[in-house]
Amino acid sequence: MRALERLGARRYPSVGGYTPDQARELAAIAYGIGRQVGLLIDRKGRPSLILVGTPKGILIPELDRSRLGAGRLRGLRLLHVHLTDEGLTEEDLTDMLFLRLDSVAALTVNHLAQPVRLHIAHLLPPGAGDAPYDILPPLPFDKVEEDFNALATALEEELAREGGKLAAPGTAPSGREKAVLVSVSSAPRAVQEASLDELAALADTAGLEVAETVVQRVATVNPKFILGKGKLAEIEVAALRCGASLLVFDGELSPSQIRNLTEVTQLRVIDRTQLILDIFAQHAATRSGKLQVEMAQLKYLQPRLVRQDRAMSRLMGGIGGRGPGETKLEVDRRRIRERIGRIKDELKNLRKRRAAARAGRARAGLPVVSLVGYTNAGKSTLLNTLTGSAVLAENRLFATLDPTSRRLRFPCDREIILTDTVGFIRELPKELKEAFRATLEELEAADLLVAVADASHPEVENQATAVAEILREMGLGDIPRIFVLNKWDAVPEDLRGSLKNCFPEAITVSARSREGLGDLTDAILSKVRPGPGVRDSGTLPSSSCAPASPLEAS
């Protein structure tokens, strides 16, 4: 301990990083205790922290963020001892990258406790190389002439001169967080890659930048780590090289799996369900939508609520503070249960109001036609085109969360209520199915379902199958249905024949160009019972009964 304390009294030069005597002292102490010893040195040459690790690694505690800002480094360099001839490890480079250290240097030691070589690495400005750092060739420990302060200052000046910013750890220059997408399954590789393409679209919608994708086909999934530690190490290296701070797994992980993966990789880990919940949280705009998303998130979080450190200590209870009381974890779980109960009550009232609205439509005798389908199939655009509405319609997943109803009048004295609903997706999280029951109940009152599919999507067959399966699971398989292939104008001519053979009963339309809308409205009117309608003396009936100037009604 006295020898370690003496290290803190030294001053370490910027040029070379140390004196030869200081290198020998460090090597002797580390070899003597059989552990890695490290120093975090500031730009004045003073040790800020003295670190003692294990024989194979060293742990850097949480550092002060006072100097950490855009375009600036931490102002600290790491000098530590490796007990073998091993150079810089991935852990060393990860620490430098995510802590934004000025540099990291590893001093190797031989069996005589003598220093041998110094391995140095430093960060690079964004776009300066394939990796976010540069590893210098190893040097004899007493032949180091690198000026560490000048190196760090030059990097900061380069960033300032170009007006650029050193991206926050794990983020792209655009400010988006970088993520590595991982698929582990026994399914064929082609199926996994198609699922990863959809996960990439979800990640983009959530505001992530996909830096790397990893596909691993296994006979059986490892119940503890999903995959082997060797593959996990490869994923960690891939994340390091591309500067990613997040792993997104294509599938649902258990709470223990997330915890184990986080501990092994030292990266944040989420699954497909959590990613979808995050998208819903970003897009929820109305009170009902926010309530439904919050309940889904709480139900997902409840079994995954795990705290460490003092969170498991008992809070004082009983008279005068006596008694075991509750743990902080138990308090959090109880509050979640109470909040879920309050949200359920509010959603119950919401369902009553929507049920009253549906009853009013039923008394008026207006048929209800609901648009259903995979997310981003063009349902909102189709609603806007048919009714002349201005409902939010964007080329992104889950742009619509709340049901929207519009009245559609035809020249032949017919009226219907056209409803747009939340889009479906494969493996829709069960938390969302329950939370959005108030929204999906709109489908139960429908007289006709118009299943809309994106004809230009390469996975259109699988998406149509997924929608049909979800409708069957919801008990809506008996409601009359029309199948519509939307975005027909985006389908190449040579593929149209095979699509028509695959979906012989489908109606082909283009919501943007209005192609095929006459056939769609004829099919809708042939399937629904006549309503009372509203006669418009200024409108002549058309033979196809296509929609006239649409009449909006919320």
Automatic annotation (TrEMBL):
Q: Where is the Hflx-type G domain?
A: 367-532
Q: Cross-referenced PROSITE patterns, in alphabetical order?
A: G_HFLX
Subcellular compartments: Cytoplasm
Which SUPFAM superfamilies does the record match to this protein?
P-loop containing nucleoside triphosphate hydrolases (SSF52540)
Superkingdom to which the source organism belongs? Bacteria
Which keywords are on file for this protein? Cytoplasm, GTP-binding, Magnesium, Metal-binding, Nucleotide-binding
CDD domains found in the cross-reference section = HflX (cd01878)
Please give the residue ranges the record annotates as the region Disordered: 528-554
Which Pfam families does the record match to this protein? GTP-bdg_M, GTP-bdg_N, MMR_HSR1
- Chain coiled-coil ranges: none
Molecular function per GO: GTP binding; GTPase activity; metal ion binding; ribosome binding
Classify the main location. Answer: cytoplasm
Which terms in the GO cellular component ontology are assigned?
A: cytoplasm
Residue ranges, compositional bias (Low complexity): 541-554
HAMAP family documented for this protein:
GTPase_HflX (MF_00900)
Belongs to which family? Belongs to the TRAFAC class OBG-HflX-like GTPase superfamily. HflX GTPase family.
Chain's role: GTPase that associates with the 50S ribosomal subunit and may have a role during protein synthesis or ribosome biogenesis.
User: Quaternary state and partners of this protein?
Assistant: Monomer. Associates with the 50S ribosomal subunit.
Name the record gives this protein: GTPase HflX
Native source organism of the sequence: Solidesulfovibrio fructosivorans JJ]
